[in-house]
Amino acid sequence: MNAKVSVILPSLNVAAYIRECLESVVNQSLRELEIICIDAGSTDGTEEILKKYAAKDSRITLLRSNVKSYGRQVNMGLDYAKGEYVAVLETDDWIAEDMYRRLYNQAVRDRLDYAAADFETFFQLQNGYGYFTRQHIFPDRKWTSKATEKRPGRDWYGKVLGSGEIAALRSSDYTLWRGIYNREFLNVNKIRFHESLGAAFQDMGFLQQVKTCAERAEYLDESFYRYRQGREAASSACLEGLRYYEGEFRWLDEQRALLQELEGDHKRYYYLTMSIAFLSKYEQVLSGLRGDWQDERLARPYGWFQQHISHAVDSGLLNEKIYGEGQWERLTLLLSSQENHARMAAAKEKEKEKEKEIPRVQRFDEFWVAYPNKQRRYLAETAYCSLVISGTVAEEELITAAQNYAVYVKESGDKMFLPNNFLEKCVFQDYLKKKDVASQEKQELRQEQDEELVGDDEDWWKYGPNSLEG
Description:
- The protein has helices at about 20-25, 45-55, 70-80, 100-110, 165, 185-190, 200-215, 240-255, 265-290, 295-315, 325-335, 340-355, 365-370, 375-390, 395-410, 420-425, 430-450; strands at about 5-10, 35-40, 60-65, 85-90, 95, 115-125, 130-135, 180, 215-230.
- It folds into four domains: about 5-235, Spore Coat Polysaccharide Biosynthesis Protein SpsA, Chain A; about 255-355, no CATH class; about 365-425; about 430-465, no CATH class.
- About 45% of the residues lie in helices and about 10% in strands.
- A hairpin with a 5-residue loop joins strand 6 (about 115-125) and strand 7.
- Residues about 140-150, about 360-370, about 370-375, about 415-440 and about 450-470 have low confidence and may be disordered.
- Strands 1, 2, 3, 4, 5, 6, 7, 8 and 9 form a nine-stranded mixed sheet that branches.
- By secondary structure, the chain is α/β, with parallel strands linked by helices.
- It contains 17 helices and nine strands.
C-alpha cells in the first residue's frame, strides 16, 4: 500500500493517553496511512502499548530514539516516512476521524505545500467528558495591518494563500500538528527540526522554515485536532520556556542562516514572531517565578533577545502599528529595563487578581448576580468552569448550574446569553436526557421488584460518559 499520509507520533511516558491517541489514528477514514511511532525510552509502559498496537496493525512501525529529544524523534520519523504528506501528532492528544482525509484531499486538489485547519483545546473533566474551546486561525472580522495591506480574516479560509499572505501568519499560526506537509517540499528545502534535548518548542523552528519556503498553503474552516490542556508535564508550562525559545531562534539564526533568506514582509513578520514569543514567554515565566526578574531562567536568554529585537526596532522593521493593544508598551519597557517591566507586571497582576475575585457560590443564579454586566458573562462562564476543573467547585454544582441555566434560557429567550457553552461543550443536554431515562427505568424496576435499587440515581454524573450504573 502506498501511503498518502505518514503520521509521526513521538512519545515519552504517555501511557495514560497513548491509547486514545492511537485509536484516533488507526480509525481514520483515510486508510492509506503510514503510522510511525518513535519512543524515547518510556518507563511507564508506553512502549509496551505501542508494541501491542503494532502487532495488530501492519501500518504501524515502532522506532526507538536513544536521545530524549522531541526534535530528534520527529526527524527520525521524517527520514523514515514514505507518504506523499507527513503529519505530526502529539501522543497526549487525539484527532477527529476525518482529519487526514479532508486535509489530504484538499492538499492534492490544490497542489499545496501544506494544508491545515483549526483545532480545539480541551480540559478533561472528572466525569470523562472534555471542556472544548475552538481556536480560530482567522478572526471573524477582517483587520488591516497598518504596515502592509495583508488582511487576514474569515475570507482566508478555503483560499490558496501565496508567499506574501503566508508571511503574515508567522506569528499567529504557531502549531505544526494542525496540518499536513508535503514530504517532497520538506526534503527539497531541507526542513528539519532542531535536535535540542527534551520537548523544547522545536515546532517554532520548524514552522518558521515552512513559512519561509512555502508558496501554496490553505486553511480549512473546520476543526479536527484536540489539544489537551492541564497536563503538568506539558512543555508550554515549563519555567525553562524562554531558554528554549532562545535556543530555537539562535539555531535558526546561526545554523540555518534563515535571516539571510528573508526579505520584506517575511523579515518583518519573522521579527514580529520573535518579539511576541519573547514577550509572552518572558511574562509567563516571570509570573511563574513570582516576579523574580533576576532569576537566571530569565536573565540569561534576555540578553540575546534584547540585542536582536532592539536592532529590529532601531532599523524600522518593528513599530507600534503592527502590535496588538498594550503589546508595544510592554515590549519597549521590557527591552529598556527588566526591573521596570517587572514592577509594571506586578501592578497589572494585582489588578487582574482583583477583577477575578469570584464569590464561592452553590447555585448558578447566585453566581450570575456577581456578573450583572452582559459583556462580562463570558468571563464568568470561563471562571466557573475553571473552578470546576480545578476541583474548587464540585461537579454536582455545575450540573445544577446547567439546569438553572436551561430554565433561564427557556424563560428569558436570551439568545445573547453567552454561557450557552455550558450545554454545548459539556454535553449537559445529553447528560440530563440520560439522567431522566435512567431515573424512569429505575423507578419502573423498583415497582416491579418492590425493592430499592443499590446506589443513588443522583450519583449518575460520577461514572463517565458511557455509564448509567448506580
